[in-house]
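Lecture notes, unit on protein representations.

Consider one protein chain, 286 amino acids long.
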Amino acid sequence: MTTSLATPHGGHIAIERVSIEVGEGAGRFEVLHDVSIAAAPGEFICLLGPSGCGKSTLLGALAGHLGIARGSLRLDDVDIAGPDPERGLVFQQHTLFPWKTALDNVAYGLKMKGVDRLTREREARALIEMVGLGGFERRYPRELSGGMQQRVEIARVLINRPRVLLMDEPFGALDALTRVRMQELLLDLWARLRPTIVFVTHDIDEALFLADRVLVLSARPGRIVEELRVPFERPRRAEHLTDPGFIALKRRCLALLRHDVDAPAHERLTPLGPPLAPPSTLRFAI
């Protein structure tokens, strides 16, 4: 593994008053409205909200696949104008090439950059080891479980050394035990490589377990209802899900989501009572 791959190098994301519209003509509608987010280099942010609120749409815009109607999107003070390997995207379903082995799938990004075979295979093997799949380099996607396929997918994105990792419910199709293991793996990789992560999920436990901050979005058109800083110490493990502080923050998220979904449209952004206690009072007993 080269030294640069292990060096923290997350990018600074600046989303300023962004609105996104989809559709054509009379069928065009607003998916996101006036969203502003600043993500510090190496920060882990989760977007939490109901289906259709624009979470995945925002990821698509950050990846450079979708245009915006208003506002600006920048990475390290440079406008995002199209796709770039420095912004890696991981979907819920893997996008591995079925005719390539795990090793060749992971090495593919470097092959497209013209890196020689010896170097790209060396770096691919190192990443495969890092995601816990040593010994499976020559297996094809059909020979791997769902969790193993997602490990290969993550390694394939990481080999491009992205400053930003965009993750669209990457563990949503996995069983509960595999999902927890993948969350722990992701936190370990993030701690070692430190990209900036924007992670979309419907799962409150997942958001609170992973993130530095959770941004709760309203129903469409998506707006940020509340920003919740997650104060729990790292490293985090599955047993933290039953901590009283974690449960209190989970109740806050549930209240925000239920209030927004059930309320009339004109009331959806009405503040929902006082915020939780300051972070200093919400600590894991480790």
